[in-house]
Amino acid sequence: MTPSPPSAHPSGISLNHVTKNFGRKQVLTDVTAELPSGRIYGLLGSNGVGKTTLMSLICGHQFRTGGRILIDGIDPVENPMVLQRTCFVHEDQLYNDSFSVRDILAVIPAFYPTWSAETADRLVTRFRLPLDTKSKKLSRGQRSALAITLSLASRAAYTFLDEPYLGLDASSRSILYDELLAEYAAHPRTFIISTHLIDEVADLMEEVVVLEDGVVAVQTDVDEARAACFIVRGREAEVRTLVGDREILTERHLGTILSATVRGAVTPDDRTLAERTHLTIEAASLQEFVAALGLHALDEVARKTEVAS
Amino acid sequence: MTPSPDGRPIFLEIADQIAADILVGAYPEQAQVPSTNELSVHYRVNPATAGKALNRLVDDGVLYKRRGLGMFVAEGAPEALRARRRAAFADEYVRPFLAEGRRLGLSLDEITDLIHKEDR
Amino acid sequence: MTHVRPNLRLYLANRTGVLLTPVVILTIMLGLSLIVAGFIGIATGFPLPEGTVVRMRYNGGALYCVPGFLLSVGVLAMNRNFSMALAFGSTRRNFWLGTSIGFILTSLAVGVGTVLLLGLEILTDHWFINARAFDVVALGSGDPVQAFATMFVLSMLSLYTGAFFGTIYRALGTVWTSVAAVGLGVLALCAGAAFLWKWDVIAPQVVGWEAWFFVALGLVTAALMAAASYGANRSATV
């Protein structure tokens, strides 16, 4: 319990073959990733794929079944020096019912040497948080606003945001994005944002980590993720010719028309062929890409069960 | 910043936007352009993306770096930008315009007539 | 201590609830006792008849009134405060330590409150009508040290029992919380039965301890609950 200064060179989060079972159910089967510090990460994937579980494991809120997790080279579980540099307000965070917003804002700064009262005050004002309301009486949007306020004001080196915009109206979401970027610019740190409202927050991220089927399906730069798949639409035979042996993540049919989400980048040849055979090629948004990966994973599972039975 | 429909990376869109601002004289030669962080907050994008946009313009010779001070508009950059845009005009506008005309069965004369009519 | 203090502050965030309310509950119990004594007095005339005074010496109100509330304080601390502490980067161990210091403060408040009310009771010659709420057999018949010790231990026992259940709930879920409740009940009954069965063996050992016997018993049980809550806390999750 002797206080020592946090390591001056945060190196990031390292996940090595991390697994997590709940009873017999395997949620994370083999998660391996390196997340260097000082970036904004988007943690994406279908509902129930284990995004919140993974963040809980990193922060030691839950215990991993296997594998290794390091924050700045140290196992975070029950390590006060490392955990003090994390902040993870859960989407369904429990507060003591008898606490008002004011009580919470009075107590939490004690947990962080890095706490910024100025940021807290500014966000309370901008979100119009009702200070005298008890935590259990807050609306969904106010709960989100409180979580954002605490998370940003903590200035924790590793800040986890779990679906931070739930219940926020459009203008409050604007405040969230502006404040997040301003805080990040002024005091660079690592943010990990789990979200399924992907396109709205995609631009804030530097890197995306897509979880699917218990593993990291994709980890890449946002620009690369955007270029990682495209949608081609037209008469089925011509679409199939253009796709060739590339992987089709999802397909949708309308009569003789096929709309296929294809993994890979569009080549100049594709464009020429598309122009000649009247196909349209569109960039898939990040949202479409992640959704396609999710559907693809479901199809795979269905196929495996079919084979097994 | 909304992603463009043809899937161009956001940083290119922002670079184009800054170039367009230079063309209309928002930043004259030798003037300082906004910092990575300012661009990040303004366009609501990750600072890394904003940084890529600035670096792209540095690579293109539109901006230059002054150590510790920031990014500045290069001498002759507006003129160079205009020249480059003229060069790209045929590719980006004329060719697709002609292709669509042909698809609709318009002859070159008919298309030229349309241009003259529009320009009146 | 650096990492324990925030957890103590978390426990004390609602000072009224964890320091004042238990004392208020004791005061309300006193009020009710006085009202009852008053009604009896109106029926029989003052001073209260000898039989009533004897019965009031066995008034156990002080023992019954606080545990329920403190149990809930213990449960909420380990359930709600625990979730907050972890969210804001505390370890389980430091959370448990900080909360334990808080438990001691609450129990001190209960003990000191009891002694103050006992002092008033004796100073006012038992509230002028020979009514008793604190100068009772269960609290050492007017001995302030024993009154303090009894209430302090009772409070610690209640808080840690609540903490134990709150933690079991966090660590193992609803089913195991019920199992633990039933198990603990059965254990308590068995212990009680064993005491009665072996009373002729135990009694000579504890003769002269009088109410201190129960203080000692409570202290041992509180220590066991504290250890159990610590153990369960190590595997509690959010």
UniProtKB/TrEMBL annotation, chain A:
**One GO molecular function term?**
ATP binding
Kindly give the SUPFAM superfamilies that the UniProt entry links to this protein: P-loop containing nucleoside triphosphate hydrolases
**Stored InterPro entries:** AAA+_ATPase (IPR003593), ABC_transporter-like_ATP-bd (IPR003439), P-loop_NTPase (IPR027417)
Q: Which UniProt keywords apply?
A: ATP-binding, Nucleotide-binding
Q: SMART domains attached here? A: AAA
Q: Which residues form the ABC transporter domain?
A: 13-238
Protein name (database record)? Putative ABC transporter ATP-binding protein
Automatic annotation (TrEMBL), chain B:
Top-level division of the source organism's lineage: Bacteria
Under PANTHER family, the record lists:
GNTR-FAMILY TRANSCRIPTIONAL REGULATOR (PTHR38445:SF10), HTH-TYPE TRANSCRIPTIONAL REPRESSOR YTRA (PTHR38445)
For this UniProt record, the keywords arranged alphabetically read as follows: DNA-binding, Transcription, Transcription regulation
Looking at the keywords, is Transcription present? yes
Quote the Pfam families the UniProt record gives: GntR
Task: From the Swiss-Prot or TrEMBL record, give the protein name.
Answer: Putative GntR family transcriptional regulator
A molecular function annotated in GO for this UniProt entry is: DNA binding
HTH gntR-type domain: which residues?
Answer: 8-76
- Species for this entry: Phycicoccus elongatus Lp2
Keyword set includes Ubl conjugation: no
Automatic annotation (TrEMBL), chain C:
Q: What is the lineage of its organism?
A: Bacteria, Bacillati, Actinomycetota, Actinomycetes, Micrococcales
* Key word Transmembrane present: yes
Q: Which keywords does this chain's UniProt record carry? A: Membrane, Transmembrane, Transmembrane helix
In its UniProt entry, what is this protein called? Uncharacterized protein
Highest taxon above the source species: Bacteria
> What organism is this sequence from?
Phycicoccus elongatus Lp2
- Residues annotated as transmembrane: 12-41, 61-82, 94-118, 147-168, 175-199, 211-232
